[in-house]
Amino acid sequence: MNAPEARPPLTVRVRTLAIALLALVVCVVAGLVLVVQLGVYDVAATHQHLAPVYKLLHHAMARSVQARADQAPPADLDEPSRVEQGAVLYQGHCLQCHGAPGVPPEPFALGLRPKPVNLVPAAREWTAGEIFWTIKHGIKMTGMPGWKYRMADADIWSVVGFVRAMAVLSPNEYAAMMRRLPEHRHPMMASGETASAARQARAEPAAAQLPTSLGSVAEGRLKIDAFLCATCHVIPGVVGAGFHVGPPLAGVGQRAFIAGVVPNQPENLVRFLLNPPAVAPGTAMPPLGLSEEDARDIAAFLYTLRTP
Ligand code: HEC
Ligand code: HEC
């Protein structure tokens, strides 16, 4: 008999390792198949993504765009004439989902998940080439259409020019620019009716007489996701952008004033949510088509946010 063998021969060790790895892969694949086949992940657009899923998807999307955006912008990208041409195209093709300073997205767009983001952060942080690529090719598995076969490159660059300009326009400046420009008429719209007139009609405040009572916190929590509040505000517990277009809403329940103009009391908050510009003229927060009940529920939720 030889001395006791301390370790099995190399080939045996390699084989054991290979079997262990294979078993691991089989388990992972079986787990994924189970998750898919049992319908575990909730695809309902009425429920937000899990925060890690949203972050991962958004990051992967941004990296994918960065890896592909290779076209250089034309020299006249920010020229007023190009920007104005882009503004008309934006009104016809983008406003419905992304809104504009003081203008909310259309009701259908509020229901999209992922949410059509507010474009101010992208306009500030993305290169012109990245914005161009995104508009031209769209983004799979989101509502973002690719415009390649529907808009010429030159027109897409004009939209890019406008998106960059829009990021620094106040609602009043945007409205003034729109008054100067020819309105983009949608072919399906009744003759004479313009897109902005139709939107204006819908944006009228729901009621003049408001009760002072608040609604349901739980409903408000769901509705704050449903009305795209998180595309402009960082809100505790609500999955969405991690940047600020409006003030963060953590601690809003404790603030002395709403939008710096009216005392933070329930009836003022409800009035503000129903029609922000009526309470804070010139504000960049648009009326989002809330019913009075929606506003009371959302206000109830906002008053639970007491720690900044
Ligand atoms: C049908 C709705 C819809 C329309 C119309 C639309 N978009 Fe989008 N857009 C989206 C959605 C949804 C996203 C994805 C947001 C995300 O990644 O979470 C998006 C993403 C983007 C992004 C990437 C920004 C970011 O930070 O993720 C840009 C830029 C953009 N859109 C610009 C435009 C422009 C310009 C137009 C008009 C030519 C347009 N979109 C038309 C829904 C729309
Ligand atoms: C397009 C971007 C945008 C969207 C969408 C939006 N807001 Fe705002 N919000 C703003 C801006 C900008 C302000 C700052 C207003 C000001 O000071 O004029 C603001 C202010 C507020 C304030 C006052 C905060 C303070 O400290 O004074 C509250 C509350 C608020 N928003 C709640 C909401 C809720 C709830 C929703 C969804 C129903 C929402 N917002 C959607 C941009 C937005």
UniProtKB/TrEMBL annotation:
Coiled coil: none annotated. It comes from the Bacteria. Residues 81-167, 215-306 form the Cytochrome c domain. GO terms for molecular function: electron transfer activity; heme binding; metal ion binding. Keywords: Heme, Iron, Membrane, Metal-binding, Transmembrane, Transmembrane helix. The chain crosses the membrane at residues 17-40. Gene3D superfamilies: Cytochrome c-like domain. InterPro entries: Cyt_c-like_dom, Cyt_c-like_dom_sf. The keyword Acyltransferase does not apply. Signal peptide: none annotated. The keyword Transmembrane helix applies. This is C-type cytochrome. It comes from Ramlibacter aurantiacus.
